[in-house]
Specification:
heterotrimer; A: 290 residues; alpha/beta; B: mainly alpha; 10 helices; 2 strands; 3% strand
């Protein structure tokens, strides 16, 4: 039985409390991240998803309610000072956070702060660079500013991966990348889960990218989780997705239309491949699912 | 999200001060500031205080916000008060401990310093609360434009000021995000020694500055694309027009300034 | 080859970055392209294909190393043509934040007209019109940092439209926005093109976005390798795949079904086409099955 690595209970977070600029960003969130899973948190901008995940490593502490990471309440004294080691948080556009003279030194920043000796920290950095798919021989000695956008982002992710956290949380990791860049990121995340058993929490508004990657999806709107479960189930609720300000994936819309026209396909959020098999099956074609 | 709470931020409202030409207000702050510094006696400071109080009440902005503008500086002000009290001797001794003594003269001096700083801050706040940043920039540009003949690039300075003001909240947000990100990699966590603190500072400053330069480059390209050419003649959406009330205010503040300069020593 | 109504023309355009330096590279390697008045052209290509470099020649931000670019007949390499060219061609960039100059929405939109030296009354008219067209009138007194990403991009567009350009060029304008915002702004651009007659040129790496245009030009390695209506270009799946360009989901599904023997039209670009054809085929199938 898998245990929960992160638990949020009735989590409420208010920005600027008691001022005219007060904003209730999280309005009672209940959520669990299970060991080794890939959880996608999806929502439109302003839904609170970034605010939520910043509670997972103690960057933010609840206004009310509770967040437990590996069993420890984040409000416990000294907890945030330790949490960053267990939960690695990659913020939006992380490529803008690089600052050291060489890529290797920047990726080694985290390991050094963990207390690793310089040599060990560098080894860990080399490992992390390879793990994200960069060639250390090529990039290690370069200045971070001389890498192209997509590669800089991978280097920034390596910097957090180098902490070898139990949970990796990424806020919009594929935003602004071209299709090849997006594919690289999603393949990386799938590999991390497969090869290292790292739990991955992925914040995104790109529903199509999430299909086939996430084991579970949580939909957020106006500071609450409005749906939580398997992607096939959750992402096929077109009405709810639209109410949450999200664009319904094409496969869902297409299959819904075909069902309405009497075609015997199973409606549900599916990847392109699965949709093709469904339709092929309905038409009695080769490679279809009868 | 420090978005809305920015130092000296404009408070939209309708008031006497809001309706004044921004040039009047800029000159007014200078005159008021000059008066504060030139005031030599308690009587003069009281006069300046009276005028400042008038300005505050005419600004339509609650006293609470003026207090908020001063609050962040409370430690500095307290320190200045103490230093002044200890440093300037004169008159009877009120309290003594070892080498340090506080005299009546010292206390009066400290009170003066505190009063001056508070009056200056209040006057500056009255300006920024009632005038949107671009209008302040327009006023500065208009006031400096006679100096164009001497080679002062008034319009360019004004534009630089506007752009800087517009990006302050953006840079503040970015700094906050950077802080969170570097802390999430353990920066400044392991022990609080000066080395670690320096490391945290570098990890914040380098990306902030690099980011600011990147923004400046992109902004310059966007500005050029919208037809901007440094040195070319530009018009302004908002025209500045002086009215009778502006003349009255300038006269009052001008008189105050002259009064404090000429009165006594 | 010259056409009537070719507003922008690039002939044999070559551009080199870092001339003389070790990292010198040919970003544009002989581009011939025309933009006709009133059209909506999408320039698609992966990162490094040269599309951003190309469009920066359209308002003379860059000038050719070899070849020629003309805007309404004006040569871009002639410095005194530049002010007029920048009045004819407005440009919007990828990052909404770094295009906004003013500290209030209204003041930012005024920046362009102010640069033209228009009288304050005329500036106000232009600003009001641009805000109305982009739907931002209610926000005119707001500081830009309080706007959402989508609103900021609309503000950048309003600022470009305020000089009444004939052509609006947008360089990857949607890549930092979420899906719903992307669709809204894309619809806005189509309406702007169809109803106000503004010529629109948009670069993107998304074939899905390109499907909204009237004509698509695909770039790779500094050259235009494919050109035509979206359906024509989508039909050349082999080329697109080689270039690493991802077909939209509808096109991918259509292609896979065609390979399995379903008689779908080549070059299906979107959901409506695909659903319509599948529904039609289904009715035929059912009809045939009954006999």
């Amino acid at each position: 039985m898998r245990r929960a690595v992160i638990e949020a209970e009735d989590l409420v977070y208010v920005y600027h409390p008691g001022t005219p600029f007060e904003v209730r960003a999280l309005d009672g969130v209940n959520l669990r991240v299970m060991e080794g899973e890939v959880l996608a948190v999806v929502g439109a901008s302003g839904s609170g998803k970034s605010t939520l995940v910043q509670h997972f490593n103690g960057t933010l502490l609840p206004s009310s309610g509770r967040v437990r990471v590996l069993g420890v309440d984040t409000r416990q004294k000294g907890a945030p000072a330790r949490l960053w080691r267990e939960v690695g948080l990659v913020f939006q556009q992380p490529e803008h956070q690089l600052f050291e003279e060489t890529v290797l030194e920047d990726v080694a920043f985290g390991p050094k702060n963990l207390g690793l000796a310089p040599q060990k920290a560098r080894e860990r950095a080399l490992w992390a660079l390879e793990a994200v798919g960069l060639d250390p021989g090529e990039v290690a000695g370069l200045s971070p500013y001389s890498l192209s956008g997509g590669w800089r982002r991978l280097a920034a992710i390596a910097g957090v991966l180098a902490l070898k956290p139990k949970v990796l949380v990424l806020d919009e990791p594929a935003a602004g990348l071209d299709p090849a860049g997006k594919r690289r990121i999603y393949r990386l995340l799938a590999r991390l889960r497969r090869e290292h058993g790292t739990a991955v929490v992925l914040v995104t508004h790109d529903l199509e990218g999430v299909l086939g990657l996430a084991g579970r999806v949580a939909v957020m709107a106006r500071g609450r989780v409005t749906a939580w479960g398997e992607p096939g189930e959750v992402l096929s609720r077109a009405g709810e997705l639209e109410a949450a300000g999200l664009e319904v994936p094409l496969t869902v819309r297409l299959l819904n239309r075909l069902v309405a026209a009497g075609v015997p396909v199973k409606a549900g959020a599916l990847t392109v491949g699965e949709a093709v098999r469904q339709i092929a099956g309905a038409f009695g074609l080769e490679g279809g699912r009868g | 999200m420090l978005d809305a709470i920015t130092f000296g931020q404009y408070v939209p409202a309708r008031s006497f001060l809001h309706g004044l030409d921004p040039r009047t207000k800029v000159l007014g702050v200078l005159a008021l500031g000059g008066s504060v510094l030139a005031a030599g006696s308690a009587l003069e400071l009281l006069a300046v205080l009276a005028v400042t109080a008038l300005a505050v009440s005419a600004s339509g902005v609650p006293l609470k916000l003026y207090a908020r503008a001063v609050l962040p500086l409370k430690y500095i002000l307290a320190a200045a008060f103490v230093v002044q009290a200890l440093a300037s001797p004169g008159g009877q001794v009120i309290w003594a401990a070892g080498r340090f003594s506080v005299t009546a003269g010292g206390l009066t001096g400290a009170a003066f310093v505190l009063a001056r700083v508070l009056l200056l801050l209040t006057a500056a706040s009255a300006l920024t609360f009632t005038t949107p940043p671009t209008r302040v920039a327009a006023a500065v540009e208009a006031l400096l434009s006679p100096l164009k003949k001497l080679g002062v690039p008034a319009a360019e300075l004004s534009l630089a000021m506007t752009v800087a003001l517009r990006f302050i909240p953006v840079l503040l947000d970015e700094a906050q995000l950077l802080l969170k990100a570097q802390r999430s990699r353990g920066a400044g966590a392991a022990g609080r020694g000066p080395v670690k603190w320096a490391q945290l500072t570098v990890s914040l400053l380098v990306p902030l500055i690099a980011g600011a330069i990147r923004r400046a480059e992109e902004l310059a390209v966007a500005m050029e694309s919208r037809g901007y050419r440094p040195g070319a003649a530009r018009t302004r959406l908002l025209e500045l027009k002086m009215q009778k009330r502006d003349a009255a205010v300038l006269a009052l503040l001008g008189a105050l300034f002259l009064g404090t300069v000429l009165w006594g020593g | 080859m010259g056409g009537r109504g070719a507003l922008i023309r690039a002939e044999g355009l070559v551009y080199v970055y870092g001339r003389g330096r070790p990292d010198e590279r040919r970003a544009l390697d002989g581009v011939d392209l025309e933009v006709s008045a009133g059209e909506f052209l999408a320039l698609v290509g992966p990162n490094g294909s040269g599309k951003s470099t190309l469009v920066r020649h359209f308002n003379a931000l860059l000038t050719p190393a070899a070849g020629r670019v003309t805007v309404a007949g004006l040569d871009t390499s002639c410095p005194h043509n530049v002010p007029e060219i920048r009045r004819l061609v407005g440009m919007v960039f990828q990052n909404p934040e770094n295009q906004i100059v003013g500290s209030l929405v209204e003041e930012d939109v005024a920046f362009g007209p102010e640069n033209l030296g228009l009288m304050p009354g005329e500036v106000k008219d232009r600003v009001d019109r641009a805000l109305a067209v982009t739907g931002l009138s209610a926000l005119k007194d707001r500081p830009p940092h309080l706007l959402s990403g989508g609103q900021k991009q609309l503000l950048a567009i309003a600022g470009a439209l305020a000089v009444r350009p004939s052509v609006l060029v947008l360089d990857e304008p949607l890549s930092m926005l979420d899906a719903v915002k992307k669709r809204e702004i894309l619809n806005f651009l189509r309406a702007l093109n169809q109803e106000e007659g503004v010529t629109v040129v948009m670069t993107t790496h998304s074939m899905e976005e390109a499907a909204a245009a009237g004509r698509v030009a695909v770039m790779a390695g500094g050259r235009v390798v494919l050109e035509g209506a979206p359906a024509e270009v989508f039909a050349k799946e082999g080329v697109l795949e080689e270039l690493g360009l991802e077909l939209p989901a509808a096109a991918k599904i259509a292609r896979a079904l065609s390979r399995r023997g379903l008689p779908l039209s080549p070059g299906i670009t979107g959901e409506d086409d695909l659903a319509g054809e599948l529904e039609g085929l289904w009715r035929l199938w059912r009809g045939a099955a009954r006999h």
